[in-house]
Amino acid sequence: MSNTAYDVVIVGAGIVGAACADELARRGLHVVVVDGDVVGSGATAAGMGHIVVMDDSDAQFALTRFSQQLWQELRPELSDDVEYEQCGTIWVAADEDEMNEVRRKRDYYGKRGVPTEVVDAEALQRLEPNLRPGMAGGLLVPEDGVLYPPCAARFLIERAQKRGAKLHLGISVARIGRGQVRLTNGAEISAEIIVNAAGAFAAELTPGLEIKKRKGHLVITDRYPGFVRHQLVELGYLKSAHSASGDSVAFNVQPRRTGQVLIGSSRQYGAEHKEVDHSMLVRMLQRAQEYMPGLARLSTVRTWTGFRAATPDKLPLIGPWVANAAENRTGEEVRGTTGDKSIFLATGHEGLGITTSLGTARILADQITGTNPEIPVEPYLPSRTAKEHVHA
Amino acid sequence: MSSEAQRHFDVLVIGGGPAGMAAAARAAECGVRVGIVDDNFRLGGQIWRGESDAARSDHERSNVSQNTEASRWTDRLRASGATALCGLRVVHQPDPGVLLAENLDGFCELTYDKLVLATGARERFLPFPGWTLPNLMGAGGLQAMVKCGLPIRGKRVVVAGTGPLLLAVASYLRQHGAEIPVICEQASWKSLAKFGLTLFSWPQKIIQGFQLKRDLAGVSFAANSWPLAAHGQKTLESVTISRAGKNQNIPCDYLACGFHLVPNIELPLLLGCAVDNGCVQVDDLQTTTVPSVFCAGEPTSVGGVELALIEGQVAGLAAAGHASGARKLFGKRQKARRFARLLDRTFRLRSELRSLSLPDTIVCRCEDVSYSRLRQHRSWRAAKLHTRCGMGPCQGRVCGPATQFLFNWNPDSVRPPVFPARVETLAAVTAQSQLQHSEVTGGRS
Amino acid sequence: MPDQITVTVNGSPVVVPSGATVAVAMVLAGQACRTSVSGEPRGPLCGMGICFECRVAIGGIPHCRSCQVLCEQGMQVTTEN
Hints:
- The complex is a heterotrimer of chains A (392), B (445) and C (81).
- Chain A is α/β, with parallel strands linked by helices and 392 residues long.
- Chain A has helices at residues 15-26, 58-74, 96-111, 121-127, 149-162, 202-205, 237-242, 278-291, 323-330, 353-369, 383-391, and strands at 5-11, 31-35, 50-51, 89-93, 117-120, 137-141, 145-146, 166-169, 173-177, 180-183, 188-196, 212-223, 231-234, 248-255, 260-269, 299-310, 317-320, 343-347.
- In chain A, the strands form three sheets. In chain A, strands 1, 2, 8, 9, 10, 11, 17 and 18 form an eight-stranded mixed sheet that branches. An eight-stranded mixed sheet of chain A has the order 5-6-4-13-14-15-12-16, sandwiched between helices.
- Helices cover 10% and strands 35% of the residues of chain C.
- The relative contact order of chain C is 0.28.
- Chain C is built from one helix and seven strands, in the order ββαβββββ.
- β16 (299-310) of chain A pairs antiparallel with β22 (421-422) of chain B, so a sheet runs across the interface.
């Protein structure tokens, strides 16, 4: 590896890093991507691959809706192994309280041009016969879809490479700052801009970054075509994703093109090891069986885990890193990063990295090239945390 | 959901082949409560797989010594009082000291003080064009099918691959009336000659050798020979082999093809046992690096029945707290271990076997991933992620050893379930975890 | 115990020796156990329950490893295609 200067070095070849590489290369920048492992091996490999609009906040909606539309535009070009399917989501309501939430979501999405359909108990049973009877109904979001994330990341990286981007795998990054990325083998890469897209490991490279690892579990079954037709999510999912601490599970099930059923989801803070946590697995599978009793007799083939990158306000960090925030927060001067204008962040996507990767890449590239962003970027700016602290 | 059955054993043996049977018998004879678990409907493992009535009645001559050995240990095990749990497959260790096992109908929770892993070995399969055709099976695979009632009389069977299993299988098939056009062994004449000479150190093996010679009289045996391609429309019709530098096409009904054995180390790995070069590390008393967990037989090194029996006995006695009895077997074991090393040297795979695949030859059979697609990746992990090789129900048991040989890839870590298991099994709240949970939360659910 | 048993494979009766496994019944019926992802016919490979090539539905339950299941009189075996 030579000391050629690039326009941008992207740390992390997960779906976010890959999308950024693709977008920046498309705009004619000289890009290199580095990753210590293989393409799409971090949270990307443990994501459900659910392309979904979320209404947790206006900012979250804006980014997910923007990104979902980008995925739809990209769809015809995607290779077969990305397995993009527009199967739609059904948010499942277990009782009348949750049906109120369904109606609230319908109104919210309706005002913003996202097509949805409220389904009653009978219609729900018809759409998804394997859901246990007695559900109150749900909200069908037909434009949501699913894909296979590691191959999506690889597709984007390969497209970036065709446009001249370089890729270096298998060597970890030791340090980043002031236009230099130092690898663990001693080599250095210089660039005007460094993008930290290292997901759950982002805080290791940019001290002071408030990113916590949030472990999740997944289980995949053998082939049972037709067992489930849409991505099914319980409305309680938001409570699970919401909680700032503690372990939680939520019913979240996906049909894969292969006919396999992908079962999630779980969230844990403070778990550092990647081994499967049996008690979490039990909780997650029991929750799943509560909604779909037929899952009990299905044969599972694999279980695995991953770490989401979670921020305190549940929105990703997309834009220039502001070192002042680090100084104030950690109480010690983060030497050398004061005034470092070379670091940009594209991380902290929690459970929405797959969906928002494309939107992230666009608004990051806009900020880097000084173009007017397609959606307002203020909610995702890293500097927002500094502002918060000042006003605290 | 609570487990449907819960059983506790002082010594729990996983695997009902020679090593497991020996371990269970010796441990039970020491007076402790012993359970032995196997996923087949009868004990015996692969090499001592019992014959169905139909297969047995078809038998004209019996392979005397092996059957005697098997019956001896079967009787001894029965007399020992150990409990046999057949048709049960261990899938997960939810908590230390607890195993979750599944059968056709449900699952059960097995707890133990000491665990003996005697999980045996499986055949190594290597891909070549046409290898996915029906009626192309492993050497042990075809033998197992015949033992389970597959009629073979008058059928033409080519036997190919490597290892002493080929001769044992060919002999068995011939006794049942199969026609064997040729046995293709990829090892060189030189290695085999050395193997043959060294066999003189093991009298038992000489007897077996002479029996094999008698059983296989007239059968063509080719060293330096291997399959190149299998042909057929819907099932196997013929095989092309490489022999003395020339290609030869042989019409046949079945191909029995296996390239020696791969230790089944998935369960030991799941339990955290240290492994070296694909074999479970054990000390003199067959203890692994995990306390209370022993390992015996092929998973410690592929060494045949005799070594498995000795190691099984050592492990069983040690697990039952009878280390002095175990030590008496050390001498015999040392001798038998030499045979294991000899096997390893003799039947090493030649490099030509790496180039049998064509670009479109399927390597991962579960997901139909071709050689050319795999070639693009630098590691097993990358290949898994991007092609799904190894993500099918075989969980890499077939394509793993193949890709290790073809591309020099190192395998991944093992995660539960070690065999495909139903959701309800994995979701089982075991009594042990119920106990722990209430301790931690003070009863709050 | 009778010497022979009859099971049905995809609706057609197949006579097998008693003590035979369902995998043997499939071979005797001349039928592939399953069709692979890319459309190839597949049959038993390992004979010991690890390769999963011999999967069939027995009594309506899919993904049963036929090499490990003994035939019983009247058993209904179906393949996914």
